Amino acid sequence: MISLRRFVLAAVAVAGAVNAQCDKSVEIKSDGDASALSSCNTIRGDVTIGEGVTSLSFPSLQTIEGDLSIKGAVGLTSVDCPMLRQIEGDFVMQGLTVLATLSMPELTKVGSISWTTLPALGQLTFTKGVTEASSVLITDTNLGSLAGINLVTAKTFNINNNKYLSTVNVALGNVSEALSVEFNGKSLNCSFPQLVWATNITIREAGDISFPKLTSVNNSIAFIQNNFETVSFPELEKVGQSFAFNSNTKLTKVTANDLVSVGGTFQFANNTKFQTLDGFRSLKTVGGSVDLSGTFKNATLPELDDVRGGFNLQTTEEFDCAEFDKKKSGGVIKGDEYTCKGKLSEAKSSEGGASTSGGSGSGSGQKNAATGRAGISTFALIAVVAATLIL
Ligand SMILES: *[C@@H]1O[C@H](CO)[C@@H](O)[C@H](O)[C@H]1NC(C)=O
Ligand SMILES: *[C@@H]1O[C@H](CO)[C@@H](O)[C@H](O)[C@H]1NC(C)=O
Ligand SMILES: *[C@@H]1O[C@H](CO)[C@@H](O)[C@H](O)[C@H]1NC(C)=O
Ligand SMILES: *[C@@H]1O[C@H](CO)[C@@H](O)[C@H](O)[C@H]1NC(C)=O
Ligand SMILES: *[C@@H]1O[C@H](CO)[C@@H](O)[C@H](O)[C@H]1NC(C)=O
Ligand SMILES: *[C@@H]1O[C@H](CO)[C@@H](O)[C@H](O)[C@H]1NC(C)=O
Questions:
Q1: Where are the chain's structural domains?
Q2: Which of its termini does the chain have fewer beta carbons within 10 Å around, N or C?
């Protein structure tokens, strides 16, 4: 019969051996390698999963003090971490062709999320939900929703090219760098019910959006090629740089009656059904230029009293320019450029791009600040896709 003392010593020895395995970065090359770590509660380093792993399970792991990185494991079908609460570093997954199950029911804190090309991943099993991550990039997945990503604050939040994504509803209070939601499902309903401020916001190809508490955009905000008809920003007061609505072909109404200042360009272009601009009853200051082109029948900016740049309004419809002619002659519009013209066969934005009533409304290739950023992210995407193919 084994004595208690011998049993305790043996247990300590086993724990010691296991701890040594858990105390450093690990590379898991085969399914068997993972079982050697099955008793670790904490791994004090990075966990790198190799291409040959087909299923991954860490039954007792609670904390990874470094990164969790899974790249190119094309046979990996499931990742199961029932106790994992925290990944202190980056959680990277890339090119996991058949990964269908990602179960981390206890996970709440992650340094950052970067998930690229996970074509079989349709949902997350994140029961508690991730509430802390400094940046999130989710691109080219089959996710239908982001249920399980419950962040309240982030530096960057970039969700693009997830063609099955139909809902994004995240309780972010602020985004200190960029918030981008682009090229997902065409009817994506994108809600940020708690968002108060963000540095940049770019929303492209969404079906509906909601920003009920958005008060301030420190840099630029752009809505491009979306499919919604109306949008309102009931709390928005200030945009630090440009404010742009381009190529939203169903758009009929935008309301931001508390918006007082736009630091850069105030632009509407290629919104082929947008005829009445009357939802900006408090707009006083535009630090750049006012650039409105399209099918306007009526436009009014009743409080506008300081435009530091020029003014361009071109429309294919009959238009009464009296209000803006008066602002030009009264010195409200300081820039040299001034155009206000109706009944044009082609209405152009001040960069010269056409914005006619019959236009296709493609938003690519513009040079203006707001859409330029979106152009850059498209380029970055192509680079990511190319890199994935090469790897
Ligand atoms: C950012 O949002 C979070 C969540 O709403 C809030 O707790 C925090 O105070 C905000 N930070 C700033 C600087 O606004
Ligand atoms: C915000 O967007 C502008 C271009 O519109 C870009 O110059 C700037 O670097 C962006 N800032 C952040 C923090 O992403
Ligand atoms: C989008 O979501 C918001 C908030 O959940 C909801 O109020 C709105 O009706 C939804 N829009 C559509 C088109 O389903
Ligand atoms: C953005 O503006 C908000 C409100 O004015 C402010 O609280 C926040 O600190 C600003 N963020 C940055 C990154 O400057
Ligand atoms: C648009 O302007 C015309 C006159 O140019 C005016 O008769 C009409 O009531 C206006 N419509 C709206 C919705 O303001
Ligand atoms: C409007 O659409 C035209 C034609 O597709 C394009 O050349 C132009 O750059 C667009 N302008 C803006 C500001 O989006």
A1: 265-375
A2: N
